[in-house]
């Protein structure tokens, strides 16, 4: 009975490496059983009912992209099925003529038209098969593109907060596998249709010969179908259960070849640990592969044995019919050919149904991921934002990250007026970046309201809001593209404009960066490709700044914009922000360099997600025991006294000059 049981999720072994590097099996917080797809609990028929819906997804996409190719394909497949049926009928006629009484020459003459018909339909079948290959070769990549693009288009529109949800994250990760399934699904569907038509043709001929033979055919098919579905479901369950493990292997092996950790990998000797981790985790996976292969072999053997027994019974029935005079020898010959032909169709069918069943599960995941992306998509439309931007006002804003226990922001109320440099300061984790993301409309407040020119961001047209924001984050994207494209992507909805790109680069003080590139604007700022080159951290920062400039948004959010800049460039960068504000841009500046905040129009100090102080630099410096003042003084003191303190005084050296404070 154990073969009939559905594959149950089993506890996964945890390798030593996983324990060392990830503190246990790397998986999402929720146990696998909660993720176990309802599909896994489905029986064969329930699953079979899913298939048309999934085939319809692929079929619709095929119809959309190339209806002619789809019709050609279906016509060619149907034609092949018909040629097979005609082939059997013609074979039967030829056999009847050959087994008839009379001289051999007469019998051959009688059989000749049927033999010619067999040759003709075989040739036609071969031609139709070639047409089918051509049409599917045209259709498959197009269908894959359309379905995958739907997935990507959905993924880029998901609300940022939804992406923080582990369930959503997992659904998207699972959906990603589905994009590989589309092409296979289309190919397999075609083969299944082909095999089904062949099977129906053979069954039809068998029915005409003797209805009992059709029943025998069903008996031969049933065990193979069961084996196929059972194996596919087991493989799918395994893939789901090992999803995170596979991702962990991917994450580790990716680090081995990435450029960024390359130095530490060599100097700290981290490479061996990573290679060992890869090997260790792959060995754990191999165990699972072995288990699957063994289980599949067993299932297949049982299915083949049952199917073989049914085939023997079919031949026994033929024997009985022959000996009892219920069937002529020629007809029995056709029946044998029909059973063999049906057997061949069946083998193709089983192999493909096996794949199809599995691919249907993945495609269902992809479909689920696309639906989920639509459900959590950024809303379109909404209240128009009056322009120009005059003020952003936060009232009692609290925000808790999805799944977090404590809020990252508590009842923050503040105002960001137009054309000012507004600084956000505070210790690490005090909520500065979170606040800036709420201002940018990337997250919606859990409580309280944010108003842009009086319009609540919850009701506002978010696309319009994004349109007015420029971002220059701590970890801004380093796009693997040309230098020009890296700037243009700041506002890619506008047609590419080289003069605007150059202007932004000049404003961001990045002319030198471009001038030093070996292929100028067309240099790829990524290594490993023709025209590729590597930028330094500071050069990247200038390019990122040029991108933010190119966007020309009324609100510019800059999060630690100078971390990689040299002192001269840093001073210029802060002066440039000042000048931007003087020309009407609102600048929300997040920085730990408090020398720069001295020139801000207004400073807000956050602590543990609460707004604890606000004012100008002078006002905050006048606050006895104030947090801003304490941070500022500590930073300034570093410049004043570090050279004396840092080095242990030695009799042979003396420090005669303290480095002057850089700012303030
Ligand atoms: N995506 C996230 N999911 C859950 N919690 C987060 C997330 N991002 C930040 N947090 C938490 O929210 C709090 C505020 O983080 P935030 O990044 O806003 O601080 P910050 O003031 O910008 O810090 P830093 O100066 O280090 O950049 C921290 O406790 C952090 O752990």
Task: Write a brief structural summary.
Helices cover 62% and strands 9% of the residues. The protein is an alpha/beta fold.
Kindly report the CATH topology of the domain at 37-375: ABC transporter transmembrane region fold
CATH architecture of the domain at 37-375: Up-down Bundle
Give the overall shape, derived from the CA principal axes.
Answer: elongated
Count of extended strands: 10
Question: Which ions, cofactors or small ligands are bound in this entry?
Answer: adenosine-5'-triphosphate
Oligomer class: single chain
Distance between the termini: 81 Å
Strand order of the largest sheet: 6-7-8-3-9-10
How much of the polypeptide forms β-strand, as a percent range?
5-15%
Biggest sheet layout: 6 strands, mixed
Total helices: the number is 22
The helix/strand class is alpha/beta
CATH superfamily of the domain at 37-375: ABC transporter type 1, transmembrane domain
Any low-confidence stretches, pLDDT <50, length ≥5? 28-36, 641-664
Radius of gyration: 35 Å
């Amino acid at each position: 009975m154990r073969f009939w049981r559905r594959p149950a999720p089993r506890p996964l072994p945890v390798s030593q490496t996983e324990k060392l590097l990830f503190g246990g099996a790397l998986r999402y917080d929720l146990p696998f059983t909660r993720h176990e797809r309802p599909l896994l609990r489905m029986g064969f028929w329930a699953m079979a009912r899913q298939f048309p819906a999934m085939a319809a997804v692929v079929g619709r996409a095929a119809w959309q992209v190339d209806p002619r190719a789809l019709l050609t394909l279906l016509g060619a497949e149907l034609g092949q099925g018909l040629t097979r049926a005609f082939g059997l009928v013609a074979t039967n006629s030829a056999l009847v003529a050959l087994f008839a009484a009379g001289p051999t020459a007469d019998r051959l003459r009688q059989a000749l038209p049927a033999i010619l018909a067999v040759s003709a339909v075989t040739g036609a079948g071969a031609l139709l098969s070639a047409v089918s290959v051509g049409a599917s070769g045209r259709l498959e990549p197009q269908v894959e593109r359309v379905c995958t693009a739907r997935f990507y288009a959905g993924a880029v529109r998901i609300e940022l907060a939804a992406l923080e949800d582990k369930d959503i994250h997992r659904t998207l990760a699972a959906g990603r596998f589905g994009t590989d399934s589309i092409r296979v699904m289309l190919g397999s569907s075609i083969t299944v249709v082909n095999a089904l038509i062949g099977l129906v043709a053979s069954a039809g001929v068998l029915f005409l010969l003797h209805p009992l033979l059709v029943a025998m055919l069903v008996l031969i098919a049933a065990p193979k179908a069961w084996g196929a579905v059972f194996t596919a479901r087991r493989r799918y369950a395994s893939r789901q259960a090992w999803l995170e493990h596979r991702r962990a292997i991917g994450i580790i092996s990716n680090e081995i070849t990435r450029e960024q950790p390359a130095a530490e990998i060599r100097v700290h000797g981290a490479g061996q640990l990573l290679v060992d981790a890869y090997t260790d985790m792959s060995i754990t996976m191999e165990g699972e592969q072995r288990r699957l292969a063994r289980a599949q072999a067993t299932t297949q053997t049982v299915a083949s044995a049952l199917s073989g027994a049914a085939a023997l019974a079919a031949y026994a029935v033929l024997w009985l019919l022959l000996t009892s005079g219920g069937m002529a020898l020629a007809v029995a010959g056709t029946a044998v050919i029909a059973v063999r032909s049906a057997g061949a169709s069946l083998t193709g069918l089983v192999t493909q149904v096996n794949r199809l069943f599995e691919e249907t599960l993945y495609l269902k995941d992809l479909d689920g991921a696309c639906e989920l992306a639509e459900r959590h998509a950024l809303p379109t439309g909404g209240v128009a934002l009056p322009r120009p931007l005059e003020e952003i006002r936060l009232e009692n804003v609290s925000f808790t990250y999805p799944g977090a226990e404590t809020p990252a922001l508590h009842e923050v109320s503040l105002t960001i007026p137009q054309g000012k440099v507004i600084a956000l300061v505070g210790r690490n984790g005090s909520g500065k970046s979170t606040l800036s993301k709420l201002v940018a409309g990337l997250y919606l407040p859990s409580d309280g309201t944010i108003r842009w020119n009086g319009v609540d961001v919850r009701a506002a047209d978010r696309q319009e809001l994004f349109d007015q924001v420029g971002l220059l984050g701590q970890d801004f994207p380093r796009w693997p593209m040309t230098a020009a494209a890296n700037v243009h992507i700041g506002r890619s909805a506008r047609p590419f404009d080289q003069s605007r790109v150059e202007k932004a680069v000049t404003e961001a003080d990045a002319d030198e960066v471009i001038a030093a590139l070996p292929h100028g604007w067309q240099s790829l700022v990524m290594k490993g490709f023709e025209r590729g080159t590597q930028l330094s951290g500071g050069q990247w920062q200038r390019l990122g700044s040029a991108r933010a400039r190119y966007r020309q948004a009324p609100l510019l959010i800059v999060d630690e914009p100078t971390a990689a800049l040299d002192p001269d460039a840093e001073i210029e960068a802060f002066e440039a922000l000042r000048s931007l504000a003087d020309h009407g841009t609102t600048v929300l500046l997040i920085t730990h360099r408090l020398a720069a905040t001295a020139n801000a129009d207004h400073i807000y100090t956050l602590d543990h997600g609460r707004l604890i102080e606000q004012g100008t630099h002078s006002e905050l410096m006048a606050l006895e025991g104030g947090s801003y003042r304490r941070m500022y003084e500590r930073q300034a003191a570093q410049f004043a006294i570090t050279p004396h303190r840092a080095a242990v005084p030695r009799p042979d050296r003396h420090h005669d000059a303290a480095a002057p404070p850089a700012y303030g």
